[in-house]
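Following up on my earlier thread - several people asked me to post the actual chain instead of describing it. Fair enough. Here it is, all 248 residues.
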Amino acid sequence: MSWGQKKISGLGALAVSVAMCCALAAWKWDFMMMAKDAVSNRMAKRCTVGERVEQYGTVVRERLLPFFEKADAPWPARRLVLVGLKEERQLEVWGEDATGTLKLIRVYPVMGASGTIGPKLVEGDGQVPEGIYGIESLNPNSAFHLSLRVSYPNVFDRERAKEDGRQRLGSDIMIHGGTASAGCLAMGNEAAEDLFVMAALAGTANVEVILCPCDLRVKRPRPSANAPTWTARLYQTLGAKMKTLPRS
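Reply from S.P.:
Thanks for posting it. Predicted structure:
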């Protein structure tokens, strides 16, 4: 290798190193900001769900009413379906119209999420779950602005874990504000306000959450080679569920 080639190779390696350092710095900055917000929120006055709805309800209605009107769906929604698409990094919000038919209301970008395609298996694996869930509760005093607690693990998750001999499946999976997350969906504060108010007005019992590896209406997922054998069955169930919703 000539001196010129060595110089170019060295510059290329330097560029890669700089890029990696910048990416790491950006990641650390996100989590520093997330920690700062968490401390600020913990120090703030404690509020009830109703007080948060009163605080954000008017501005959320103003933001979302045009979307509901375009979908010909009444505000507030009586029933909601939230569809999280991991590969596309999107969260679809579906609401019922006057006839009970689900209509696409809005699509939000997911601002932060960790992990890859594949179900969550154990605590600390950084995976966003995949499956059909509900909303267990709303947290008006979340460390991440506002949050909706997903009912992971569900019955399917627990049964597969028992078969596999897995324990400590993890918990505290949230859809929350902010822009960084580990195992949850960070939606940004404005979107978190929208989702929180919609869920509160509909009632958590009337909110369904579908978390998918990708948009199963248009593509097939490619799980890793070491994915559990039951993953195909899970994706078949999710695919059938997704086919009940038109492509956005």
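The CA atoms of residues 217 and 246 lie 8 Å apart. That should answer part of your original question.
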